[in-house]
Design a protein that fits this description.
CATH class of one domain: Alpha Beta
CATH topology of one domain: Aminopeptidase
Number of helices: 23
Shape: globular
CATH superfamily of one domain: Gcn5-related N-acetyltransferase (GNAT)
Radius of gyration: 31 Å
Largest sheet: 10 strands, mixed
Distance between the termini: 36 Å
CATH architecture of one domain: 3-Layer(aba) Sandwich
């Protein structure tokens, strides 16, 4: 069990229980020190992380996993001699130049009982609008002193958990932020007394802090800070001293404080300033340890029956009960992919629990999917090449006009309404989906409708096309965490964005990029335009390409001619700040297409080197995998019926969508894996009761076989429940027959359990109506 970043194994939990039982008078502090010793849980300077351990122990206690000793309230430490009155601090007015002040020094404040600490508290409580505290996390306090006496004080403490402006300036991902946030220190208090009127004093004090803080922080905590941050309330201050001390303005906050869980935005807007303590601060903060990747995907043949537990069992939702509920909802949705929420959950109690989960203020798409992203990274790290395919689709909720916070998704403002979804799915080169790496979901603001007409005037950050760059950065984060795997970001013609190529070529370690060209771009001097340049190249060969079925058009094999060339793109006229980019182009043109069929013409642009015919057809094969994400979207809409969810608000739909996204991936993954590894035992995916009930139903024999069928055999049996006939010309089953069959298999398995006394004879609560329109 992972709590506060530490793995509390069954052995450690048993040790805690035994210690509490054998030593009933042990204090919680003493117990936390022992646990720190068992786990070797220490700060960088070697001290036990007692407070973090106490938080973890309290969480285990509240979950009923361990029982902690009673708190010794009477034994709480108090200052010797009782509570002391705040000291009377005499402040003399000071008005002079900085050079006439006679020297300024920073006095480091020690323990809370010291005289310096009481002076610091008294000054802050009297003169600072935020008071003396409490301060958050690791902290360091200073008093500002001169020959005239006290001039003010400062405090540095733990950084804010998430700040969009700061995080965007650093450029780190979620994993890097979790690992390196302690290296960012916040200047949380800064006071120059109102009686002190000295020009340039504030910026001079900040310069002194930059020189003194690293050594003081190192002595107390065992490491030096990499970046300083601060927040300046713009209605009160202008931040002049920070700019004068060479701090960088990086943006503003959105008005949320540390405790704004309900997104009330009740805190004043503040300007965000940062100060790098070293030249490579951003690189250091973006570094991610290789040990952060956990390779947990089982080997072929190893049973992993409860996939929902594997995928979501370690989700950090703030309460283990929410995690348990999430796992249960995922199981129910997977068992009945096309069912409504009441039908999937089966009982009234579970249905109400699901609706409460979707309406929970702490839930959201990113929160639910976070653990699935981790599981995906564990799977992708097992192959040399991973194709990260991006695509956008729309979700139509026009039949639910009462749903709040939807937006237009068509070409008319008063037309169809719904949500837009942009996701990135990881595939291996054979087309097997490995999981999601990024999901973005949003509703268009009706007031922004028509923004496309002035798209050339807007920066990329204000356009919807920025979603491609956001997903690419997520793929780059995955690349950093799996350095032995080559990631290739794949996109259709919408991804032909100059800023995206510039981002992909910014760093040599970035993922590769492969997109289908949409624009006949101007090339460097002497190269002409894109299509003309590549079409002039000699034919390097002819390659067969499988064109999947689309609508009423059957699948077919095309034989396009292949050409390739190295090209240099010139930046668009409206974007002169960008440099020229050297990439490779691969052109596949079909010259003998059947009648009434549009011939293939793919112009692919890639940052991968292409110098031979084999490398060119490899890129064509990679792009052909992109069709998989369209199959995935069809599974999501038709198989999981996400567009029929009636939840009343877009936020609830997004939370539910997060679950449906993973369920749709699981169905798609099962379909492809049955073709890729057909001979492994079906226990890789199916529980014992599932495969036994399945074989008994199909063979009409109540005695199941001693050995489970292979994965391919089991998948074909499930698909037969969904209408798959299994004729020689039918090939392997698809996702549609599989998701229909899974629904029937769940009912068959339930009855099997009843008949074999492995389950209670009837549900504890009456099931909901089986009418398809219920709910």
């Amino acid at each position: 069990m992972l709590i506060c970043g530490q793995n509390f194994t069954d052995e450690v939990i048993q040790k805690i229980r035994v210690t509490v039982e054998s030593e009933p008078t042990i204090s919680r502090r003493a117990l936390s020190l022992r646990v720190c010793e068992w786990l070797d849980w220490r700060t960088p300077n070697g001290k036990p992380k007692e407070m973090s351990c106490r938080v973890a122990l309290l969480r285990l206690h509240r979950q009923g996993i361990v029982k902690l000793p009673e708190c010794n309230v009477n034994g709480l430490s108090a200052p010797k001699g009782g509570k002391k009155d705040p000291p009377i601090v005499q402040i003399e007015p000071v008005r002079c130049n900085l050079k006439d002040l006679g020297g300024v020094e920073l006095i480091r404040v020690g323990s809370r009982e010291s005289k310096a600490s009481r002076v610091w508290n008294a000054l802050m409580d009297r003169y600072h609008y935020l008071g003396a505290g409490p301060l958050c996390g690791a902290q360091m306090r200073y008093l500002i002193k001169s020959p005239y006496g006290w001039l003010g004080g400062l405090a540095f403490s733990g950084a804010a958990w998430r700040v969009e402006a700061r995080d965007g300036w650093i450029g780190w991902g979620d994993w890097a932020r979790k690992e390196n946030l302690s290296k960012v220190v916040c200047n949380s208090r800064f006071l120059i007394l109102p009686q002190v009127k000295v020009s340039n004093l504030a910026s001079h004090v900040l310069s002194l802090c930059v020189r003194q803080l690293p050594q003081d922080w190192l002595e107390r905590y065992g490491f030096e800070p990499v970046l300083l941050e601060t927040f300046v309330e713009r209605d009160r201050f202008q931040g002049t001293c920070y700019r004068a001390a060479n701090w960088q303005y990086v943006g503003t906050t959105c008005g949320r404080g540390r405790q704004d869980r309900d997104h009330t935005h009740s805190v004043p807007i503040k300007d965000v300033y940062v100060f790098p303590m070293r030249k490579d601060a951003r690189r250091v903060l973006c570094c991610e340890p290789l040990q952060g990747v956990v390779r947990c995907e089982p080997e072929q043949g190893v049973e992993t029956q409860d996939w929902a537990e594997d995928e979501f069992g370690e989700a950090d939702l703030g309460d283990r009960r929410l995690t348990k509920r999430l796992v249960g909802i995922v199981r129910d949705f997977y068992a009945r992919p096309q069912a409504s929420v009441p039908q999937a959950c089966q009982t009234r109690a579970k249905t109400k629990a699901a609706y409460r989960f979707f309406d929970h203020p702490k839930m959201g798409m990113d929160k639910v999917l976070e653990q699935h992203y981790e599981a995906t990274l564990a799977r992708v790290g097992q192959g040399p090449v991973v194709l990260a395919v991006q695509d956008t689709t729309s979700l139509n909720y026009s039949t639910h006009p009462a749903t709040e916070n939807l937006g237009p998704i068509g070409s008319c403002l008063d037309g169809i309404i719904g949500l837009l979804l942009h996701d990135t799915m990881a595939f291996n080169p054979d087309g097997t989906p490995l999981g999601l790496l990024d999901v973005q979901c949003w509703a268009r603001d009706p007031e922004d409708f028509g923004k496309k007409t002035r798209r050339h005037e807007l920066p990329i950050e204000q356009k919807e096309s920025n979603r491609w760059l956001i997903s690419f950065r997520k793929v780059a984060e995955a690349q950093r965490r799996s350095p032995k795997t080559t990631f290739v970001s794949v996109g259709d013609r919408e991804a032909d964005i100059y800023e995206l190529f510039e981002l992909a070529l910014r760093q040599p370690s970035a993922p590769k990029l492969l997109v289908r060209a949409s624009h006949n771009r101007l090339l460097a001097e002497g190269q002409g335009h894109l299509w003309e340049k590549v079409s002039e190249q000699e034919i390097s060969g002819i390659q067969e390409v499988l064109v999947p079925r689309r609508g009423n058009r059957p699948a077919r094999v095309a034989r396009p001619e292949v050409r390739f060339a190295e090209i240099t793109l010139k930046p668009p006229k409206r974007k002169p700040r960008f440099r020229e980019l050297t990439i490779w182009a691969v052109l596949a043109q079909e010259v003998e297409a059947p009648q009434d069929v549009e011939p293939i013409e793919w112009m692919l642009l890639t940052t991968c080197q292409v110098t031979t015919f084999d490398e060119a057809i490899e890129k064509l094969a990679w792009y052909a995998v992109r069709w998989g994400i369209e199959v995935y979207h069809r599974t999501l809409k038709s198989g999981c019926k996400i567009e029929e969810r009636q939840l009343g608000h877009a936020d609830r739909i997004e939370t539910c969508l997060a679950i449906d996204l993973v369920v749709a991936w699981r169905i798609f993954h099962l379909t492809k894996l049955g073709r890729e590894t057909p001979d492994v035992p079906c226990t890789v995916f199916f529980e014992e009761s599932e495969w036994k009930s399945l074989t008994a139903y199909i063979t009409q024999n109540p005695i199941p076989p001693d050995r489970p069928p292979t994965l391919r055999e089991a998948i074909r049996m499930v698909a037969s429940l969904g209408g798959f006939l299994g004729r020689n010309s039918d090939g392997e089953p698809g996702t549609k027959s599989l998701w229909l069959g899974l629904q029937r298999l769940d009912d068959i398995t339930t009855m099997w359990k009843v008949m074999t006394n492995l389950h209670v004879p009837y549900p504890q609560e009456p099931p909901v109506s089986s009418n398809p329109g219920y709910g």
